# Entry
Amino acid sequence: MSGDFTQRAPGALNDPTLRRNFRRAMDGLMTKRAAQFQDTAAWNALRARGAAVKARVVSKLPELLEQLEANCTANGITVHWAESTAEANAIVLEILQAAGAKKVIKGKSMVSEEMELNHYLGDHGIKAVESDLGEYIIQLAGEAPSHIVMPCIHKNKSEIAALFAEHIDGLGYTEDVDTLTAAARKALRNEFATADAGISGVNFAVAETGTLVLVENEGNGRLSTTLPPLHIALMGIEKLAETLEDIPPLLSLLPRSATGQAITTYVNMISSPRKPGEKDGPEQVHLVLLDSGRSRVYADEQLRDTLRCIRCGACMNHCPVYSRVGGHTYKFVYPGPIGKILTPQLEGLDCAGDQPHASTLCNACVEVCPVKIPIADLLVRLRGESVHSSDSPAVKGAGSRHNWREALVWRGWKFMYSHPLAYAAGAKVLSRLGNAIPDSAPMIREWTSVRNRPKFAGKTLHELVREEGYDHE
Amino acid sequence: MTAHQSSGKPDTVYFFGTCIIDLFYPRAGLAGMELLKRHGLRVVFPPGQSCCGQPARNSGYLDEARAVALQQIDSFPQDWPIVVPSGSCAGMMKTHYPDLFEGRPEHAKAVAFSQRVHELTDFLVTVLQVKLEDKGEPVKVTWHGSCHSMREMGVVDQPKELLRQLSNVTLIENPREKECCGFGGTFAVRQPEISAAMVGDKVAALEETGASEVLSGDCGCLMNITGAMDKAKKPMGGRHIAEFLLERCK
Ligand code: SF4
# Structure
């Protein structure tokens, strides 16, 4: 898949299976979420709390990160700072090599996707096995996640059955879900037992106590973080909470928004490595804090709202664009509305400036975001940044999509629509002669691919109002 | 919800026609004005008006959007409510004008202006509390709420309330009402394939209702939806709710 978002979209749109898989899955997720938030007043109150918690955390991010480091260190967790994904990879590799690890078992982590960690470790002779069922499936398929919460949501049962038949010895083709899950479970049990290290993500790190909160449904997160002798947790620097009291509203919002569950099957709270006398748990716990452009996001008062995100995926589940094209069309790690605002900020508008335009600004995401990120306003801000350069740009690659022809059109537009006489003259001409513009003209060509074009009415409302004798002052 | 709810019914209102209505659907604009007039209001149409500025704002050309927004603000000098036959343009003026002028000398003026903005159906229901009398034949219709009217203006049930007042009109709601039709202003031409998929699904959902006509309070969506229906030679039609209401009550 190459080109920009617009060029990649038809591939997904013309794949009926993919369209159906996404449509069905997103419909299901929307229904489940709605069932959790039927009481509007309760939803509004909970969401206000969630948004306030994350807004506060983001507003004092540097200070809270220092607090987190101090408290984690006091708990025996080794904290590492990574400026870039390359640095994060090197840190992880060094820890693993020092421990002589050859195989790691992984819980779900989008930060590890940002780092392309599996690939990097593979290049250095370390095998990484995904243990989240969805991640396991796409690892077998050699694909990237298409959704941040449900990485293999683009696949249906028969596609998964075929994949398992091909990769799991002795299984054969079956669409029986229990048999399929049992087969994955059996294959993974062995990997858990023989892994030298576990790698996980973090949903919330509590600065006040140095606790890492990890939610999951399969128990694979707990196994990955407790069974192997070494645990490495990866997190973006924004995944913070200030106090333990901040956790309940977030814990209530996250699964409800994500999968329509009141709570996940497992809620792990990791506060230290195994202590003397304890019977289980890893001997070493490391926390890698990844920046990778987030500090720059933090530096802008408006854009920093992006960092409130708790990665619930509700915005993509409700996005009419995402549900048509699926996650892979975005080409970056984070698809859907959150990706459209986050990716251009992390990667730069020069390479991801197409993302903010993949939206009708319908606000469906804004309506469901549990931490009230004004996604549509941020999309507009990024669209503006992409066409306007400045000496100290807030976003990398600002101005890279500037196009003098487009700028000129807007200047002309501004003149016409802010000068009543120019507008009256222009509208008069258009309403009489506009229908003669050929269908092949730019914009009309795209419009008429599936629609008839509207007819200019002959007389404008301005003119008719006068004729009808309305006060015209 | 609205500024004038408590202070009762105004005598005079401004009408903001919107640029799409001005050029393509002036009958919808006239119908909106006529509905207001029939309920005893003096309706004033300032000649200096043109466009709310949303196309430029949504494309990230904020200076251009501001210049056009200011032209509108200055064209509506009296303290009368401003009624807009489009949830999307009303949303721009009500929710985005204040942001657009944040930290600028015109901010107070923009805020004051925004507080006077009302979407047409909401104004009819909430402020005028109209009671409509149906004089038409039995008909089945469905409703398309625009994203911005629902999510920026909070206009979800008001238009349906008006339709339910009409004794011979059966409103059949479609289960995908909250889903965007794929218009999105320049989105329709910037992302033509995705927009086509979206409007295709929208037309299918509307057709499934069995209604003969789709009504909406936003001509942008209508231009997209009926344009797609016509191109595919569907028997279903669509128009602005103001035209429909006026026809039923005549
Ligand atoms: S932007 Fe909001 S809705 Fe989307 S993933 Fe983040 S928290 Fe969830």
About this structure: Residues A 257, 309-315, 337-338, 368-371, 373 surround iron/sulfur cluster (CB under 6 Å). Residues 16-36 of chain A form the longest helix (21 residues). Chain A touches chain B through 71 residues (CB under 8 Å). Residues 81 and 98 of chain A are 18 Å apart (CA to CA).
